[in-house]
Amino acid sequence: MDRRRSAPPLRHALMGLLAAGGFITPAVAQRTGENAVTSADDAFGTSVGNETIGLYSTDEVRGFSPVAAGNIRIDGLYMGGIVIGNQRIQSGSTVRVGLSAQGYAFPAPTGIVELSVRPVGTDPVLSSVLYAGQNQNGIDLDAQLPINKQLGIAAGISFNQYIDFPGGDQARYLDIGIAPAWRPREGTEVRAYFGLQDAPIDRSTPFTFVEGTELPPHLPNRFHGQRWAAWKNRFTTMGVFGHTSFDQWRLSGGLFRHVVDSERSYNTLYVNAHGDGSARYIVNIHPPRLTEQNAGEIRLSRQFDEGPRHHVVHLSARGGIRTGDFGGEAVVDFGPAIVGEVPPEFPEPDVVFGEETNDKARQYGGGIAYHGRWPGVGEFSVGIQKVRYKKTISPPGETEIVTRAEPWLWNSTLAVNVLKGVVAYASYTKGLEDSGVAPEIAVNRSEAPPALLTSQRDIGLRYAFGPMRLVVGAFDVRKPYFNLDPNLVYTQLGTVRHRGLEISLSGEPVKGLSLVTGAVLMKPRVTGQAVDLGLVGKMPVGQAERSATAYVDYVLPFFPDLSINLGIQHLGKRAGSVDNLLTVPGRTLVNAGGRYRFEIMKAPASLRLQVTNLFDDYAWNVTGGGGFRRVFPRRANLTLSVDF
Question: Beta 77-78 vs 72-74: how paired, if at all?
Fold first, then answer.
C-alpha cells in the first residue's frame, strides 16, 4: 500500500503551519512503524517505543544491573547509571552483550545498554498514540519538526494513567520532552535534550518479605496498600552530546544530568510473612529527597588505514558524580495483618523525620584504547583506564566516612572469521561500579556499601546463514555479593559468580515471519565464609538457572495489512531467601495480539490489541533483597497510532 499519497486536510494544515520552513514532503510512518520484534537483531533485549522484548533489559543483564554498573551509553558515550526514561525523548534501547558489545571503547562487565533519542528526520511528522485498556489509558503526542537542512526539533507531550487490575496500583504521569538536532556540515551532529516527568500520584501495593519456607497466600484482587501512601515524584533529565570529524580525526563528547525529586515517598511492607498469611503491616515514610546524577565523556579518536586493515585509537576522559540522602525515615508498624486479605484503611500518621545522611560518590578516569579491523579476517581491541573513585558518607553530627579506590581497569576483545558466515569471539573486562543501597527491610536500610571490583569473561560464536542469525556464547561474571544476613544486616556475604550459556536465534525464516528467540542457562553461585559456615545458601536470591523467550510476528499473506504476534517468556525456579530454604516456582507467561495497519484521511495508522499473561497465571517476582511482588494478571490493551 502506498502511504505517500496526497495530504489529507489535517496533514495539509500541519504542512501549512510548517511552510515557513519550506517543508512540502509528506510524512512517512513513525510511531505506526514501531515494532520491537521486527526491529531486533538478536534476542538479548530490544526496546522500541512502548514495546520491549528479549532475555535482558535495562534493569537486568546476566543477573546484574547495567544501571548500577554504569553501563548506559548514547552514541557510544558514557552516561554512567543515567537512563533517560522519558519516552518523549528516548525512542528505544538495545542491550549489547558478547560480540555486539565488542565495538564499544572502554566496555565494562554486565553488558552495555545503548539508548537512542527520537530522530528529527527530513519530513515533518505529528504522531499520536492513544491507549485504552485495563492498565493504561492516555495519549502520546510526538512531533518531528525539521526547520532547515541543518536544524530540526523532536518534541512531545503525553499524559497516561496506569492502573493494575485487579491489584489496584495507580499512577499518573505527565511527560514533556524536546530534543533538537544541529548538523552544520557533513560529519558533524550535535543533539541536546530536556525532559520533565511529573508523577503526582504513584500508588503501589506492598512488598512481601517471607519468614520461613512457605510462600505467602495469593494476594487479594483489590488494592491492599494505603491510599494516602502515594508517591509524588518529579524527574528532570537533560543532556547534550555530539561528534565532529575532520580528516582522520573524530572528536565526540557529551554531558548528562538526571534529577529525581521525591516530595513524598513510601514503602508499604508485609514483613515476617508465613505460609498461613500471618504477617506484620509496616509503612516506611521517607522525608523529601533529592537525588542528582551527572556524567560525561570527551573522546578524541584517530583513524588510519594500512592496506585493507582499519585502525582506530581512542583517548578518553570521563566521569560522574551522584549525590543523595538516606535515613531519617519514619517506620510505622500497624500491627498484625493477613497476607491475602485487604487491610483496613489506617489514618495517615503524623510523623517526625530524623536527620538524614548524605551520600556522595564520584568516579573519574582516563584511558586509551585501540580497535583494529581486518575485513574477512577479524577484529581486535584493547583498552586500559585509570579510575579514581571516592564515596563520602556524611552522618549528621558525626565524622565523615570516606572510601577510596584507584584501580587500573582493562579490557581486551578478539573476533575471528573462522568460516563463511561464522565468527568466533572472546573478551575479558574488568570494572568498578558503585554499589546499591540496603533495602527497606534491612536494619541498616538505605545504607550504601563501598565500590565493587567486577570482572567478566566472554567466548562464543555467531553464525549468519541466509536471513537468520545464531549466537551461542558463554559468560562468567564475578562481583562481591551484598545481601541481608540472618540478622537482617545488609552486608557483604561473599562473592557471586554467574556462569552461563546464552543463545539467540533471530531473523525472517519465511517472508513475513519475524522470529526472535533465545535462552539463558546459568549457574549463579555465592562463595565465601558465610556460605562455608552455613549462614547463607549457595544460590543468590532471585536468580534463575534458566530463562527463555520466543517472539513471533507474522504478516498474513492473504491480508498483508494484518499481523499477529505471540510472545512466550519462561523463568525457572529461584531462591526466595538468603538461606535458600524458600524456593520460588518457575513460570511461563504467554502474550498474544495483533496489529492492523490502515489509513485515516490518508495518514498511516496502526491499531494494536495486546493481551499479556493470556492464561492469567498467578506467579511471583522476587527482588534481590527478598521482596515478593505479584506478576501482573491477564490484561488487555488497545493502542491506536496515527502519523500525520
Answer: antiparallel
**Predicted confidence band of residue 439 (pLDDT cuts 50, 70, 90):** low
Residue 233, C-alpha cell as written in the block: 515524584
Q: How far apart are CA 460 and CA 581, in angstroms?
A: 35
**4 within a domain of the structure (yes/no):** no
Structure-derived torsion over alpha carbons of residues 598, 126, 33, 519, reported in degrees to the nearest 10: -140
What DSSP string describes 55-99?
Answer: S--SS-BTTB-TTTTT-EEETTEE-TT-----TTTEEEEEEE-GG
Residue 535 DSSP SS3: coil
Q: Which residue has the higher pLDDT, 613 or 487?
A: 613
pLDDT at 162: 81
Which of 392, 495, 494, 492 shows the shortest CA–CA distance to 444? Answer: 492
Cβ-Cβ contacts under 8 Å for 627 (sequence gap 6 or more): 207, 208, 209, 269, 439, 440, 441
Q: Does residue 454 fall inside a structural domain?
A: yes
Asked if 342 contacts 224 with a C-beta cutoff of 8 angstroms, the reply is yes
Out of 1-5, 6-10, 70-74, 282-286, pick the least confident.
1-5
Cα–Cα separations (whole angstroms), residue 470 to 420, 477, 514: 14, 22, 14
CA distance 189 to 149: 12
Q: What domain count does the chain have?
A: 1
Tell me the sheet residues that pair with 202.
Answer: 171, 231
Domain that holds residue 408: 9-341+355-643
User: Which residue, 458, 563, 516, is CA-closest to 52?
Assistant: 516
Domain assignment present for 43? yes
- What's the grid cell of residue 527? 562463595
CA separation, residue 41 to residues 45, 247, 515, 604 (Å) = 9, 32, 10, 25
With b for 16 or more beta-carbon neighbours within 10 A and e for fewer, the 612-624 pattern comes to: bbbeeeebbebeb
Q: What 3 state SS string does 115-138 have?
A: EEECCCCCCCEEEEEEEEECCEEE
Q: What is the CATH number of the domain that holds 311?
A: 2.40.170.20
Determine the Cα–Cα distance for residues 142 and 494; give it in Å rounded to an integer: 48
Residue 3 lies in a domain: no
Q: Which amino acid belongs to residue 204?
A: S
User: Tens digit of pLDDT for each residue in 444-503?
Assistant: 765 667 778 899 999 999 999 999 999 999 999 999 887 777 677 777 788 899 999 999
Q: How confident is the model at residue 14 (pLDDT cuts 50, 70, 90)?
A: very low
